[in-house]
Amino acid sequence: PGVTVTVKSPNLQGSRTAVTSINGDFVLPQLPAGDYTVTLTMNGFQTVTRQVKLSAAQTTPIQVTMNVAAVAAEAVVVAERETISQTQQNATTVTSQTLEKLPIGRTLNAAVALAPGANTNGPGGNIVISGAMSFENLFLVNGVAVQDNIRNTPLNLYIEDAVQEQTVSTSGISAEYGRFSGGVVNVITKSGGNAFSGSFRTSFTNDKWTTKTDYVNPSTGLNPEVKLDDVIPTYEATIGGPIFKDVLWFFGAGRLTETTFSANLAQPILTPYTRGTNEARYEGKLTFSIAGKHTLLANYQNIDNEQLNYFFTSAPVYDFESIYDRQLPQELISANYSGTITDNFFLEAQYSQRKFTFENSGSKYTDLVKGTMMVNNSNGYRWWSPTFCAVCGPEKRDSDQAMLKGTYFLSTKGLGSHNIVLGGEMYDDKRLVNNHQSGSGYRIYTTNVVVSNGVAYPAINAAASGTSPTYILWNPILENSQGTSFKTWSVFLNDTWSLNRSLSFNVGVRWDKNDGTDASGRKTASDDKFSPRLGVSWDVKSNGDLIVNASYARYVAAVANNQADAAALGGQPASVSFDYRGPTINWNLPSGAPLVSTEEAIRQVFDWFFANGGTSRPTRGAPTIPGINPNIEESLASPNTDELSLGVTKRLGSRGLVRAAFVYREAADFYATTVDTTTGP
């Protein structure tokens, strides 16, 4: 008892101190991740100094024996460089320095893939953690969720050289974290310091360096993998330092790249062209310390992204009319407060806004001729007009987040110490879009195409009865979107209880309420669940050499935006198809006969269509009308996962450790669609 503990770090303004309690223990929460010098002093005892590493979203334990002072004071320095959690939580930290030493990318996905229990085997190469769905992880940058609202995949709201480290938590996770059933990824970016520092990096790529084959198509004489021999640089820069030492720091970073790569129009045309991306990322951060006890941090991140010669890549295109330039700007603003109210009570608050917008994505025309997309019914390839509508309004995928939590350290003589965290959180997942599928709202599915001189012409054949190989698809927006708002309200309580030097426990519970309305203003999510988090850790020798962990947890995921909005009439396209019974166009023509252009073919199809009832004609099969089919009759339940974990950690000298863990999970309340007659035939 009574030992003064002082911590210093290049990532910390000034120093932080604590005095050990009656049990000889202490806690220093809300410290930024980084390398720390910990000094323990007391009159009559030798001063002890430890070098420790503190990782994001992890607790670093320190055990020290104080010896009576000899004639000369002695400093004991022990290097502790853990990147693997020693508590009940299974977590692994990957630093930027580690990524630079390995022959892999410096991306978030590359860092996560290095963690045990995580891989990139999900659909589209997305991240899977502990066997959960790839859309049920939580990705945080400086404590702010940075996921796309539809697929829940992480957005690139970071600059590689600005990243300090990334921690992947795969099981045994504290009640402070929610809205996931897989894992939690914490990305921490750098801050300024008392010394000016910076970096500049240039990376080079070349499309031709990725050529996989020299195969030449014998029928066209073209190489389907024609590559550009063009070296593309990516520039990254960081700078940080003091405005006033130990009081106000700044940090800034930027990343500029203009990529180009080759592409071909769809077979059999295969005309080569160049695609590319112009992207600029920026980050700015201010850290302000008040009397060494209160810290204010403001962070701003921005991405200007323009995709050149883009098309909806799910379907190849035959022509350049289907190709366009679009913009995908992103912005993140956050503010964080952390403060020491008393020697054993600490407070933290954070608020953030994230914005992600799709601009100019799709067709620039809304008339029947130029705004109607053509689709080859035999293979799904498209031409004439782009997918979606660029002039019908942007798509906004935004979120707001607020958090408040207090930490109280209680040390008792007989029952050890308690590090109690109580807090609340609100997360609002918002999306606003009128999802026009084409400029005009129509698509024409042709029987096939005829290619002449590198130009695709529609081949249209109409059946007199039954299902026609050519049909018209109408996708009207019957009601404009009011915007979705799917909120998760959370309250959590977590106690990290150290009974003695050998036994510690984690006792926590979290309450999450998913509450939200779809784009028609209808409530489709109103469900709440409790999540217990229990764990025990046994330090066999009471010296950190061998630790056995066991835990039970329940994780409750947020309701997915695209599922909770699936039945909304607002902003969602209906799908109504009509068989084409008109005259054939460009079908079984004699050799040398003139071909009807796509423009003229569209006119002829619509002339017949509207002369024969138009959208009042009998439909081709059952139409899909949002709000009717599909329909959400009751609130969606919140997907959740129960987890049991058992682990053993063994220290390897003073420079490393190894951990083995067994994790068993059982998931419940998945989404499912049922087709029956309760809403009609």
Question: How would you characterize this protein structure?
Answer:
The chain is mainly beta and 681 residues long. It is 4% helix and 46% strand. It is built from four helices and 35 strands. The protein has helices spanning 96-101, 108-113, 561-564, 598-611; strands at 4-8, 15-19, 34-41, 48-54, 77-80, 90-95, 118-119, 128-129, 138-141, 144-145, 163-171, 184-189, 197-206, 231-244, 248-264, 272-290, 294-310, 324-327, 330-342, 345-358, 373-376, 382-383, 395-411, 417-432, 442-446, 448-452, 455-459, 471-474, 484-498, 503-517, 523-539, 546-556, 576-579, 640-652, 656-668. The strands form six sheets. The chain has a 16-stranded antiparallel beta sheet that branches. The protein has a five-stranded mixed beta sheet with strand order 2-1-3-4-5, with no helix packed on it. A five-stranded mixed beta sheet has the order 6-11-12-9-10.
Give a quick precis of the structure.
With 681 residues, the chain is mostly beta strands. The chain contains four helices and 35 strands. The protein has helices at residues 96-101, 108-113, 561-564, 598-611, and strands spanning 4-8, 15-19, 34-41, 48-54, 77-80, 90-95, 118-119, 128-129, 138-141, 144-145, 163-171, 184-189, 197-206, 231-244, 248-264, 272-290, 294-310, 324-327, 330-342, 345-358, 373-376, 382-383, 395-411, 417-432, 442-446, 448-452, 455-459, 471-474, 484-498, 503-517, 523-539, 546-556, 576-579, 640-652, 656-668.
